[in-house]
């Protein structure tokens, strides 16, 4: 309805104003700003502001877990970007995203670790030495493929369901993956987990010079590189034909179908691409931990993934990245008041959503939509 | 595949499944009522149940209940527990509506935002019962504080009714607790069904579920209806909490999550937004879980439940009975 009224209305949020000013800058200034931002991202782990970036850790004497926290943040940013494709772009509520994350993690664990039953079986079958395992880069490829295939397998029967039903079915999927990992001990080692998961440099050992166990800065740089590549990739996708199709399907599935966009096909694409990104995040997570077991993939974490996307501002990659960063950083930062941090976290989640339902940095389209909805609510108070 | 066990003990498994499903069904009602009227998945409902179990446990502790009390005391404990549980859970549900949902409804926010506030509220409630209350009352010394003396732990409570065989048909034995759980859940649901379908308030609920604008024009106070459904759903969860405490005798601050998940699955199975669907879905899920656990093994229980959900939704996309609070026998 009142599109024109909103356009002239003075109540444009501060965040949106910043975005508009940014877009109004000449291109070279924007590129320069972007390069500076990327450089800052790479410099970040070396930053040492006491209180903000200097976390006490019991791991190393007098050390800081800042780089480790940043690495976790980067992994979750990757997750948020992947889930944003599913929730923010295609509008599908996926509560079981942890399943793809777990498949990625188990992909690298099962094929890359000498301790995994799968690798042992292959060694026996083909008479290979006991130190043989699939290389990390190939594992990454295998994990992405597995995640994508499982995304399609999950999507095929369920994407015809309506939104709310999809939520519970996907939540169930995440649980199924976890329970399978726990119960099929002959393949996954069950609760005992899989150890010695390799990184880019091969299996974890004290002789690794770059991707070691103590200095986590290289891990962060690796993760942030993946993040930047994926951001670029998803951005291109968003503005392609596929991205426009997602938008059409999200806004009105029937209208999209009438216009010749096959909703099922594009939803399935969103699921597969989202799953692949979740798989990549899982691989990095497992490699850095060098050990995984089923307890790491519980449904609560899966729901927190969705929270990252929605709190940050679904549909906007800057937004979801900020959401992911905050949801990792804050509980980590306030480890000192350990007991109350999740309580405060819950309160913060409710407050942010009530005060800024569009998320911290909303996508422009979403913000407009929300304003329309709010205006409609004012006009017709009877509407639920 | 353990077919012999399933066929041989079929009656026994059915009884176990039904008494398990009855609790699912009672919790599922809360999801279904709210969904039927607001088209909203109230994810915080699992915590409403959790609060109920603590309230009932607290009541029993305050009463100084011992294991296997005499029948009179047991009945009083159950009745008082039911009232306190229903009031506590209903109150919690109402508070959640006020704090987390109403401000968003005023802004006409998209459904996803409700989901996130619900998660936030769940987190707050879990932490309040796991950390805040233990910190405040953990060692304060009065009777109730034993509830919070072991934060985040599984708490055992006194057995109100000793599990005894009530009657046996063939190889199938039914314990008194199983019978009480099933019968009282059925009674509760029957009463709710009557309330929604026969009373003036129920008509208001159905009207808002069918068409909020028209209902408002016809003089139905929408806010009051919304409050009513939250209280009703909460009270049912409180009753479920009592039955749970009576049957299993344990609770924990995180107990809600899995049960809520199961109850929500049950609601979807039966057709969310449909009261009778919640009953059918709950019992069906209970049976499927017990049969499945017998056929394969109990560690696959949850997988079987979800696989059955997917299969049912593939063939009946709106659940077994379809979704309609408004149209259900208007």
TrEMBL record, chain A:
<keyword id="KW-0472">Membrane</keyword>
<protein>
    <submittedName>
        <fullName>Branched-chain amino acid ABC transporter permease</fullName>
    </submittedName>
</protein>
<dbReference type="Pfam" id="PF02653">
    <property type="entry name" value="BPD_transp_2"/>
</dbReference>
<feature type="transmembrane region" description="Helical">
    <location>
        <begin position="66"/>
        <end position="88"/>
    </location>
</feature>
<feature type="transmembrane region" description="Helical">
    <location>
        <begin position="342"/>
        <end position="361"/>
    </location>
</feature>
<dbReference type="InterPro" id="IPR043428">
    <property type="entry name" value="LivM-like"/>
</dbReference>
<dbReference type="GO" id="GO:0015658">
    <property type="term" value="F:branched-chain amino acid transmembrane transporter activity"/>
</dbReference>
<keyword id="KW-1133">Transmembrane helix</keyword>
<feature type="transmembrane region" description="Helical">
    <location>
        <begin position="218"/>
        <end position="234"/>
    </location>
</feature>
<feature type="transmembrane region" description="Helical">
    <location>
        <begin position="95"/>
        <end position="114"/>
    </location>
</feature>
<feature type="transmembrane region" description="Helical">
    <location>
        <begin position="268"/>
        <end position="291"/>
    </location>
</feature>
<dbReference type="GO" id="GO:0005886">
    <property type="term" value="C:plasma membrane"/>
</dbReference>
<dbReference type="InterPro" id="IPR001851">
    <property type="entry name" value="ABC_transp_permease"/>
</dbReference>
<feature type="transmembrane region" description="Helical">
    <location>
        <begin position="134"/>
        <end position="156"/>
    </location>
</feature>
<keyword id="KW-1003">Cell membrane</keyword>
<feature type="transmembrane region" description="Helical">
    <location>
        <begin position="303"/>
        <end position="330"/>
    </location>
</feature>
<feature type="transmembrane region" description="Helical">
    <location>
        <begin position="163"/>
        <end position="181"/>
    </location>
</feature>
<keyword id="KW-0812">Transmembrane</keyword>
<feature type="transmembrane region" description="Helical">
    <location>
        <begin position="31"/>
        <end position="54"/>
    </location>
</feature>
Automatic annotation (TrEMBL), chain B:
<keyword id="KW-1133">Transmembrane helix</keyword>
<dbReference type="InterPro" id="IPR052157">
    <property type="entry name" value="BCAA_transport_permease"/>
</dbReference>
<feature type="transmembrane region" description="Helical">
    <location>
        <begin position="250"/>
        <end position="270"/>
    </location>
</feature>
<dbReference type="GO" id="GO:0015808">
    <property type="term" value="P:L-alanine transport"/>
</dbReference>
<dbReference type="GO" id="GO:0005304">
    <property type="term" value="F:L-valine transmembrane transporter activity"/>
</dbReference>
<feature type="transmembrane region" description="Helical">
    <location>
        <begin position="48"/>
        <end position="65"/>
    </location>
</feature>
<dbReference type="GO" id="GO:0015192">
    <property type="term" value="F:L-phenylalanine transmembrane transporter activity"/>
</dbReference>
<feature type="transmembrane region" description="Helical">
    <location>
        <begin position="112"/>
        <end position="133"/>
    </location>
</feature>
<keyword id="KW-0997">Cell inner membrane</keyword>
<feature type="transmembrane region" description="Helical">
    <location>
        <begin position="225"/>
        <end position="244"/>
    </location>
</feature>
<dbReference type="GO" id="GO:0015190">
    <property type="term" value="F:L-leucine transmembrane transporter activity"/>
</dbReference>
<feature type="transmembrane region" description="Helical">
    <location>
        <begin position="303"/>
        <end position="322"/>
    </location>
</feature>
<keyword id="KW-0812">Transmembrane</keyword>
<dbReference type="GO" id="GO:0005886">
    <property type="term" value="C:plasma membrane"/>
</dbReference>
<keyword id="KW-1003">Cell membrane</keyword>
<protein>
    <submittedName>
        <fullName>Branched-chain amino acid ABC transporter permease</fullName>
    </submittedName>
</protein>
<feature type="transmembrane region" description="Helical">
    <location>
        <begin position="71"/>
        <end position="100"/>
    </location>
</feature>
<dbReference type="GO" id="GO:1903806">
    <property type="term" value="P:L-isoleucine import across plasma membrane"/>
</dbReference>
<dbReference type="InterPro" id="IPR001851">
    <property type="entry name" value="ABC_transp_permease"/>
</dbReference>
<comment type="similarity">
    <text>Belongs to the binding-protein-dependent transport system permease family. LivHM subfamily.</text>
</comment>
<dbReference type="GO" id="GO:0042941">
    <property type="term" value="P:D-alanine transmembrane transport"/>
</dbReference>
<dbReference type="Pfam" id="PF02653">
    <property type="entry name" value="BPD_transp_2"/>
</dbReference>
